Amino acid sequence: MAVDLYSIPVKQVHGIKGKKPDELLALGISSVGELLDYYPFRYEDYTLRDLTEVKDGDKITVQGKIVGVPQVQMYGRIKSRMTCKIMVDSLFITAVWFNRHYLKPQLQADAEIVLTGKWDQKRLHLTVSESEFPGKGTSQTGTLQPVYSVTGTLPQKWMRQTMKQAVTQYGHLIPEILPHELLDKYNLMPRKQAVTLLHQPGSLAEGLQARKRMVYEELFMFQLKMQAYRAINHDRADGVAHQLDLPAVRAFVRALPFKLTTSQKQVLAEILHDLQQPFCMNRLLQGDVGAGKTVVAAASLFAVVKAGFQGALMVPTEILAEQHKRSLSKLFEPYGIEVALLTGSLTDRQRRDVLASLQMGMIDVVVGTHALIQEDVYFRQLGLVVTDEQHRFGVNQRSILRRKGMNPDVLTMTATPIPRTLAITAFGDMDVSTLSELPKGRKPIKTYAVSHDKLDRVIGFIRREVASGRQAYVICPLIDESEKLDVQNAIDVHAQLQFAFPEYRVGLLHGRMAAAEKDAAMRSFSENQTHVLVSTTVIEVGVDVPNATLMVVYDAHRFGLSQLHQLRGRVGRGEHQSYCVLLADPKNEVGKQRMQAMTDTNDGFEIARRDLELRGPGDFFGTKQSGLPDFRLADLAADFATMEQARDDAAEFVRRPDFWTAAVYSPLREYLQREDVFQNELLD
Ligand code: ADP
Ligand code: MG
């Protein structure tokens, strides 16, 4: 019988006592299993180096013999600089210690010493960070030492010792979970060995082998979960096979004020196909800003309503909800389709009315924020949920609906461009559709980056656009993530611009305004009652006013690249030439690279690639924006090939009947059970 390391409390490891269990808990570690899963994020290299092979500035460890008398210079009572001549191989170097003159008595002539520090090639100086005398006590010389991410209260050294102890006590009990066929296929080491080596690699090569094994495991388990969801969903066939009136949908599309792009047609066909299948659609629709996702959603909702069901459109902000409500009402009006709004700013009475009409089926399509599908909201027959510009429609939300006896198709739309291959893999439980082109006739947005001292000219530019009938957005700087200061800024800029343009109306929009005020501000801008809209980033996503042709961003260097691209996407939505002016500090280095990227390209996928480059994969993929999963070891950019292998393997596994029965796969099935993959099943 295997021991479950996750049920053994950490205090069973010798040396973990007193406050330590609590401090470990702050890192999310309460069991031995979790402790062993806490891998180092890098290694400190104490292997001995040959001075002929190192470079200036390297951090190195060398062994030598003390040949001189240490010299100490004091600066006050605590600060000091101590130097000593050391012979390393046949070279005399100077070791330098700062503020550690208390070591002086130990520096005896002729003694052997091991020094770690930063190498100054020109002066043959080594600035020492750590020193050891061979043969005395435990030694780290010649080893790689793991570096753990620890908080102030847990010293790195303690963590190293504790991990060592944990590995000694429990390492032999670490169970294998991958079947042999996979270990053999990729030549992976057993789990026991991999975990041990991750904590205590003999060499960097060993550490990398161990990492390879654990990265594969991490990605395989993730994919197994995704593929299992998918398989269960497809097998269950308990969705609605909608009887679509395709000629009516075609007529709806033909009546639109524009022709769909090839890409839109194709994506719509994919969705309509899914809607007619007996399983639940779970599809991701991604497309760059301005690619025209909304109208695809509208046609899909139309199809479902015509088939006798209701639809819901979920958006992240009230501003967007209002906007979508308006445009859907306009599109659906000729067909007698009822659209309603359900947001937090309805009065109790209004809300009660909407809820009642929804339940009775008098409302066909409801638009609202997240709470829309939760709590006390009941539909007569919900057929399709569309989520716009937000994160995935989670398993949780699905099960909330299922509990209410609804099992709708789900379409998730996102404007965060993720390379298609990556999306397919990372969202393994969804099907992915991509809008790969913008509507025809769009003129590429011209983007300029200028410094703030050009503000006068920028104001002149705004005047020119407004004078020719167009409109402009002015986005105010973010300050220290403090919403209060952002708001103050917007208020100040608004006052300045209203002063500069006495002949025009300047609107204001920020997060502290009441919902009704926000809506009024947005509405008057979209109806061209206000000509310039000063706003915080609340308009970042989704807002659609085709007559707006100029986007000005103050302090643009403070914004992330994807965010700037989203903001720029608010213009260039109509037939007029559009512009984006980024006011940025030319001395800000990161900012400069971002401005370069923005002026170089309008392509969201290219922007995402540059963003990834500038921020590093950890950051990019870690952001909530991307909605991509976070991994312990794996790096989606560097380990992408492994992710693809893992996906193919996992997909094959769940298709095999013996996967669900054979004893060798029981650790994998137990994992799926723990991860609640079968949760929906149990609810039935
Ligand atoms: P996003 O994909 O960013 O959500 P929207 O759906 O808001 O984009 O569409 C952007 C603008 O393009 C809207 O004003 C919309 O009416 C318009 N549009 C959508 N599809 C087409 C098309 N095929 N031809 C011309 N304009 C279109
Ligand atoms: Mg949109």
Automatic annotation (TrEMBL):
Question: Do the record's keywords include Isomerase?
Answer: yes
Q: Which GO terms describe its biological process?
A: DNA recombination; DNA repair
Q: What is its EC number?
A: 5.6.2.4
| Signal peptide segment | none
Single GO term (MF): ATP hydrolysis activity
Keyword terms: ATP-binding, DNA damage, DNA recombination, DNA repair, DNA-binding, Helicase, Hydrolase, Isomerase, Nucleotide-binding
Member of which family? Answer: Belongs to the helicase family. RecG subfamily.
UniProt protein name: ATP-dependent DNA helicase RecG
